Amino acid sequence: MGLLSDQEPDDSRYWKWAGVAIEFPVAVALFSFFGYLFDQRYATSPWGLLSGGAFGFVSGMYLLIRSAYAMMRDLDDSPKSGQDPPGKGPEPPA
Question: What burial class does residue 44 get, using C-beta atoms within 10 Å of its C-beta: 0-12 exposed, 13-18 middle, 19+ buried?
Fold first, then answer.
């Protein structure tokens, strides 16, 4: 046991943020790639690539906003340090 054992950071929080940071560029790259393949197959260059990139951007933003709202909801539900948990008031005087 170290002196800081009670103050260890919650690593799962950092991994959630890392996942959010990866979701957006992956969505844009994946849909852009599918748009590029569509262009190669049907000779519609550059419309498939542009459409795929735009759709990837919109879906990436959707995933980003949804994750941010979920994390904010989790932060609002957790008790702040130095405060009583929800439903518990201060102790009555004796």
Answer: middle
Q: Where are the domains of the chain?
A: 17-77
Whole-angstrom distance, CA of residue 45 vs CA of residue 55? 16
Pairwise CA distance, residues 26 & 31, whole Å? 8
Q: How far apart are CA 14 and CA 22, in angstroms?
A: 12
pTM, rounded to two decimals: 0.68
pLDDT tens track for 35-74: 999 999 999 999 999 999 999 999 999 999 999 898 888 8
Q: What is the DSSP letter of 26?
A: H
